[in-house]
Each structure stands twice: as C-alpha cells, then as structure tokens.
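A common beginner's mistake is to predict each chain separately and then try to dock the pieces by hand. The better habit, illustrated here, is to supply every component at once so that their relative placement is modeled jointly.
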Amino acid sequence: MKNVKNEPAKKTASGVPLAIIVIVLIAAAIGGYYLYNSSKSTPAANRAATNANARPAATPVNAPPGAQPPNTLGPQTAEVTVEEFADFQCGSCAAVHPTLKELQSIYSSRVRFLFRNYPLAIPAHDKSYEAAAAAEAAGLQGKFWAMQDKLFSNQQAWTANPNYRQLWTDYAKDIGLDVDKWQADAAGLQTKSRVDEDLKRGRALSINSTPTIYINGRPVPYESFNVASMRNLIDAELQRAATAKANPGGAGGGAPASNP
Amino acid sequence: MTEADEIEDRGGVAWLPLAAAVVALAGLADSIYLTVHALTAVPVPCSIIEGCETVLTSPYAEIAGIPLAAFGAVSYFLAFSLALMTAFGNRGLWKFFGTLVVFMALFTAWLLYLQAFVIGAFCQFCLISAATTFTLLIIFVISKLRRA
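With all components supplied together, the output reads:
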C-alpha cells in the first residue's frame, strides 16, 4: 500500500508495519486460542490446587463471627471448614452452587460447610438482601439449605421477575414451610439482623466480590471453584489435620489452624 | 502544507498515530479477553464495583449470536493497523482511522448508556474498552487540532 498522496520524499518502507500487523494478528489469534482453552480446562486452577504448600494466608481470627448460630452442614467438630460468602442474585454464586452441593454430599461426614449472606449493594442486585432474609426466614423453620437451593437453582426465573415474591412463595410451599410464618419472618427484624451480622463478618474480611470461599480460613482462588480443585484443597486440609493429630509435635508445618 | 505533512512534522515516525496504535493494541487485548469470556460463559465473580456477568450475559451483549466483544476486537485490530500504517508513512489512512474511531466512540457511548440505565450494572473490562476508545478519539482530535 503506497501513500495515496504520492509524496516520494515521505516514502517509507511499508514492510515494517505490515510485518508488525501480521505479528499482532498471529499473537492475537494465539492469545485468544490459549485463553479460550485455559478457560475451558482451567489448568491454572489445578496447578494452584495441587500445590498444597502454597497456601494463602489465613483470615484474621478476630473478625466478627457472623450470624449465630451460623447456617451449617456437616459435623460441628469437623477438622475442615468450608465457608462461603454468597449473594442470591449473583450469577457466579448460582454457577458455583452445584459444585458446593456436590462437595457437601461427598464430605458430609467429615467437613463443616458454612453459608454466609453477603448481598452486594449494587443496582443489579436489587433483590439480593430480601432474598437473604427470605432464606434466613426459612432457616427459622429449619429449612435454610432447602430454600438456599431453591433460590440458587431458580435464580434465572426470579432475578428479573416483577412477581419474584410469588415465585419465592411457591418455593416456600414446595419445601414445606409454614408460608404465613415464613413471610412474617422474612419481613422481620430477626432475619435482617442475621444477614447484617454476616455482612459485618464479610466486611471485616474485606470481601468485595461473591462468591468468596474459605477453606479453613484460607481463601480459595476463584479459578479453583470446581469440584476437582476444591477436592484437592479439602483433601490437603484433611491430610494436614490427620498428620497434626498423629504427630502433635508440629508436623503441621507450624501453620496455625484457623477455625472460623 | 498537506495534511500528511502536518501529522508528521518531526521526521521519522509520527508519534500521535504510533500512540494510537499502542492504545488500540491494549483495546484489542481487552476485547479478546471479553470475547473469550462471552464465548466460554465462565462466570466472573460478582463484585461491589462491577457486574461483568450481568453485562456479558445480557441480551445486549451479542448480535446474531456473535459477542459484541468480537466486533470490538475486529475494530481495534483495524484501528491498530490503520494507525500503524499511518505512523510509518501511509498518511492517507489517518482519515479512515478517524472515521472508524468516531463510529467506535458512538457505539461505546450507546453501550455505556445500556450499562448505566438499562442493565444497571457496569463491567470493568467493558469500561476499560470504553476508556481505550475515547483515548483513540482524543488522539485523533488532537491531531486535527494541531493542524488547525
């Protein structure tokens, strides 16, 4: 391509820019391809998960405890605790929900799972605080996890629906709640204060995105939010706990166990 | 003086188009990242300041099944090529760069409007792209002002 104005004095070799353009095109294609593949197979996640020694720092133990008693699954005395902070209107929280459910069924006897409400105050999440209160209200009837499951599994249906309250009421009926009590509780102070207590804990931990998951107080990298990677992390913690028990002298590597 | 002379008045490589090429390159990388995200539909975490999953999975994020970010990637690549060719002497291409960038900026303004008033969420990487496009527009306007 030559200069359209035909100025011989300004003539520059057009081979250089053309070569750069071709290089950029190839780099873009390779980069895009690599990114696409790594997004699908998440090798980085597996690497992070298998490298058990590179544990991130534990969360501060002096953070507020969150709502008491917390919403938990699994034995209270478990050596390993998985703590999730989530927002019911968050798409990635709904996406990670099946992963956590699978982990909960695999480790139901050995690991304690905690759910913390962390409704984000952003315009797109206009119903997330209310949803958290609705789940807590189900919790007052011992059905927190069933409601949590309903809300995440049907998120697409209610999140942008003006009749979301009707849908929630249907979920409440489905899981066998006393609907009148549930509705009163959802609007009541007790459920809101539980959500607020969870929020206080999350803020003290400087959480700025959901889902945020801790295994024994250590944050799980977002790209490890899949069953295989999280199993590796949980197994490593179980192993560490077993080693520490067998050898109380300090084979745990000196890392303090933190149990929120 | 011709337009070409005014763009390049320091000899060698014209620095404004070169700067534009570098900025367009950043925009290209950003939009490739967004395209891959849209294609693999890997949800990104919801955060206090952004809502990429909301924005990227909204019905506005694609035309005929093709992610908008892919159009962005093509546009940035074109802008990069035109700016680089200009920088290396093909001065006549600068006005095509300008036309392209004006269209990109108009489209970006529409996307910002959608994020602010329709979707109600912003996406960090979309905002980076907006900043990149407006930077390209500013570079083009500066080159025109210097001429005046």
